[in-house]
Amino acid sequence: MLCGGKKSYFVAAVCIIILTSMVTLSYLRLQRFSHLPKIIQEGSRCRGKTTNSTITALKDNRTFIISPYFDDRESKVTRVIGIVHHKDVKQLYCWFCCPPDGKIYASKAKIDVHSDRFGFPYGAADIVCLEPENCDPTHVSIHQSPHGNIDQLPRFEIKNRKAETFSVDFTVCISAMFGNYNNVLQFIQSMEMYKILGVQKVVIYKNNCSHLMEKVLKFYVEEGTVEIIPWPINSHLKVSSKWHFMQDGTHIGYYGQITALNDCIYRNMQRSKFVVLNDADEIILPLKHPDWKSMMSSLQEQNPGTGIFLFENHIFPETVSTHMFNISSWNTVPGVNILQHVHREPDRKDVFNPKKMIIDPRKVIQTSVHSVLRAYGNSVNVPMDVALIYHCRVPLQGNLPRESLIRDTTLWRYNLSLVMNVNKVLYQTVL
Questions:
Q1: How far is CA 354 from CA 100, 143, 209, 368, 381, in A?
Q2: Do the strands 77-85 and 93-98 form a parallel or antiparallel pair, or are they unpaired?
Q3: Which of 311, 266, 65 is nearest to 173 (CA)?
Q4: Disulfide check for 278: which of 128, 136, 356, 403 has CB 3.0–4.6 Å away?
Q5: Beta 103-108 vs 93-98: how paired, if at all?
Q6: What is the pTM for the complete model shown?
Q7: Phi, psi values for residue 213, rounded to 5°
Q8: Which residues of 50-81 are buried (b: 16+ CB within 10 A; e: fewer)?
Q9: Nearest in space to 234 (alpha carbons), one of 78, 11, 57
């Protein structure tokens, strides 16, 4: 028998560690068991109304469902992209109906509110449920309880159930078009630059825009370049046009931008090799390569295993212009002519320079705006001599004299194709 001295302390410490480990393992087993799907009804029929709305409020009015996606990267789960109140929503269940026998399973959800809420009471959330082992459900319902009538619950189609081959190399996700958006000329220029650089699809979460902008969007939808996702978030929540909470009674920041970005990643996970997360006034400009395909091929070769590539944002103030490319027909179109803005602000010392991303969507679990929150692959900061983000907007350093700005005409390398392509679109839509 050991008694007294250092040996007894050591034995006590070992005993505590073993006991703690056993309790922790037991707790984890119980937790997993509590989340296993359980049969709650038998011999029913898989029915109920399938909702096609982008945003669906549950009866608690604290939970909003965007879309469920099949995700088997770790285990066989349905991952529902949603918006929840970070304090009030504590318990949710996925209801799966399994044909042909009609068994209905309830699976307790893990509610994972994304860490980047920026102080707002509502935030993006992953509602994750284990699927029944011998069933590949096509639809799911979300409910606060494992009891009730499935026929009275909205049904959501589970996307990404079937594996697909990539239909495009690059998809751009524009997370929230709002505020009666009317920057028509710059939008068309960005769209045509994306296409020159190798983009085949642009997904836009549209809250609202001007009548003129609607005509332009209609053109790009019919062309096959743009996919519009209706985003009526202000019908459900008090939205802020700011990214951080201002104690002003709003519920969620920047029109639910983070939720839209996450949905866009999962929506394009099986159909796009890369997903680009940026705004309509931002263009990732390669400096060493002619287009994104050659740039990304080089970056992947240099950084094996990397799934997230971050590019520095650089402001080209719309208040500083050049007389070049003053095209008279463009002057009647609302918006900024980016070809006239080739002076960028210098980096500010000790200030975080935000980044935007090109990602492999299959390696991302959760994203924020300027970085990913959870991923399987590594992240790499792309050097500025390889590429930078051309961001033409109101200045951040408005007091700087023109001579303190850096003249950067990288954009002009594309001017012949860009001018010709923009003119074609304008004459078919606006002029």
A1: 51, 38, 26, 12, 11
A2: unpaired
A3: 266
A4: 356
A5: antiparallel
A6: 0.90
A7: -65, -35
A8: ebeebbbbbeeebbbbbbbbbbeeeeebbbbb
A9: 57
